[in-house]
Each structure stands twice: as structure tokens, then as C-alpha cells.
Write a structure and sequence with these properties.
This protein is α/β, with parallel strands linked by helices. The chain has six helices and 20 strands. Helix 1 runs parallel beside helix 2, helix 1 packs parallel to helix 6 and helix 4 packs parallel to helix 5. The longest helix has 26 residues. It starts with 10 loop residues before the first strand and ends with a helix. Bound molecules: flavin-adenine dinucleotide.
Length: 319
Amino acid sequence: MFFKKETQNCVIIGSGPAGYSAAIYAARANMNPILFTGVQPGGQLTTTTDVDNYLGFPEGVNGNDLMNNCKKQAERFNTKIINQSVNHVVLSNIKGGTHRIFLDGKKCIESRGVIVATGSTPKFVGINKEKKFIGLGVSFCATCDGFFHKEKNVAVVGGGDTALEEANYLAKICKKVYLIVRKNYFKASKILQYRILRKKNIKVFFCSNVTEIIGDNFLEGIKIFNQKTETSKNILISGLFIAIGHVPNTEIFKNELDLDEKGYIVVQKGKTITSKPGVFAAGDVQDPDYRQAITSAGTGCMAALDLEKYLSLYLESIT
Ligand SMILES: Cc1cc2nc3c(=O)[nH]c(=O)nc-3n(C[C@H](O)[C@H](O)[C@H](O)COP(=O)(O)OP(=O)(O)OC[C@H]3O[C@@H](n4cnc5c(N)ncnc54)[C@H](O)[C@@H]3O)c2cc1C
């Protein structure tokens, strides 16, 4: 077996910026972390091309290159990286207790400390070329990719708070923002609606769906269908921002950790401490608000430091 049979001190679940950042800090603090990558080694950033807002890369960096470097850095400090998913967990309620992490084939690893960094998954509209054109015009993050569309026309899909926030942000950078809303009303808060409806360069299409992405090698436009008039029209845009929500990857923690109403792991304010002692959460899985690579890496660091503190309190009494 890749890991020793004895109880571990630090198991990290997830290999995005949060997981690798936690691994680097945990390894350098002699916690001998074991990190499970899951089915998407490197996390969400491996699905995009250019990352322009991650600190330290004045020319920007390719998402895959960034995550390969994070992996290499974690390996440099002897993090054990295992290309497997965690299927099931049994988390102890006892301070200093042992948590059990189950893998494929019912293999089990025991650890006093667990860092959950399983991230989130953006929801897709479900149309052709949507996945193929991620980073080629299709985006899930205005803060990340809005700048690439400066002075150009873009569209945002969604009618909730996130969509209206994205549209509001893009309206400051882009020439025109088309907001495509499936219902005949916004789900977003009144204050956001008020802001959006006042913006001259935002045009709202209610009762409308995006039915097609136009372009052969990259996104050049979209076709939208109006359910009321039953007519379709093409809109030429350089960017399509899908803002219909994210699903936190917390299925395996449902009965083990406190989750909020959207399924995000609840952590103590300003900390990464979850509802179970010795279990910490970092990155998108506990963050419905910021969802950035840098904030994920930041909370990954925090989780390792929180775990180190926890172990130093309980380790003496349990070894
Ligand atoms: C297309 C796209 C472009 C983006 N561009 C930018 C950008 O330019 N700048 C920016 O700051 N942010 C960007 N983001 C957001 C950024 O990618 C996320 O905020 C960040 O990746 C979250 O990091 P994370 O470590 O929390 O989780 P993720 O990156 O989501 O990684 C989660 C990890 O957990 C693993 N995992 C899940 N379940 C299990 C399990 N059961 N067992 C083991 N492992 C598991 C997955 O395999 C994955 O490795 C972008 C997101 C997308 C989708």
C-alpha cells in the first residue's frame, strides 16, 4: 500500500489550489500529508486557458501549468499524492479522535486530521460547445475573465444574485452586457435589480434561453430563444458568462459535517474549523462568495495552520 497502516496526522481531500496550498504548509510543518486528487487532478483551473489574476505571474499563466507547478511544489516537500477519490468518510466527534477515510475498493485510511478541499462544480446550461469553449469565450467568472472582454459585447446567463453581480461588474468593463434570464422575473435581491435596471449598457432578455453557441474555434455569438414570442435571435458577443450557480462537492460529507442550505461546509468565522474536531475545510467547498484561486490557496494555508495548532493541543495526549 502507498501509505503506512498507522494513524496519519494529515489527510487532504482535493488537489485544487486549496489542497496543494494546504499540503505545502502541512508538509513543511512535518505533518507528512497524504493528498487525494479526486477525479479532477489540479481542480477547476485545469479546465481554463489563461489565469491572469493569480499573484506572481505578470504575464498571466496557463491554468494547467499553474496547477502542475503547485503539484511539483507539494511533491518537493514530500507530500504523498494519490490519484484516487474518497468515497466515504466517518468523522469522529471526539477531540483528538481518529477519522476514517474510505477509498475505492473499501480501502480505509485513518487520520487525526483531515483537510477538506473538494471544491465546487459550476452548473452548465447544457448546450453544445459549452464545455469545449471554456477559456475560448465561455466563462464562469467575471472577475477572472471580464478583463479579456474590455470594450466588447458579452452576455450573462442567469437571474439570481450571482448573475446580476456578474452583469454589474462586466458593465463597468464591457461595451454592452446582455443578461439572459429564463424566467420573466429576477430571483436576485431588489437592490441588485435596481442597480442593473439603471445601467444603460445592460440589456435584459426575460423568458429567454441560450440555445446555441455560434463559432467554430471559439465563441463568436449565441442564439437565444424567447419562450413567449417563440422566436429566436442571434447575438454577436465575445464572452458568455454562465452564472446559474455552483454545486459544492460535499456529497460525501452530508451526514458528517454541518452544511449550509446550499450544501457548502460551514466553518467558524475567519477560520477553517468545521463542526467536527480535527476536520478543516478550505477553498470553494466552504466559500459561496469569493470562489477564486487565490482565496482558495489562502484558506488552504489557513487550514494547515489550524490543523497544526489542533494537533499540537491533542497530539501529546494521544501518542
Ligand atoms: C473555467 C474556470 C475558470 C476559472 N478561472 C479563474 C481565474 O482566472 N482566476 C481565479 O482566481 N479563479 C478562477 N476560477 C475559479 C477557481 O478555479 C476556483 O476558485 C478554485 O479552483 C477553487 O479551488 P479549490 O482548491 O477550492 O477547488 P477545485 O479547484 O474545485 O478543486 C477541487 C479538487 O477536489 C477534488 N475532489 C472532489 N471530490 C473529491 C473526492 N471525493 N475525493 C478526492 N478528491 C476530490 C477534485 O478532483 C479537485 O482536485 C475559474 C473556475 C473555472 C471553472
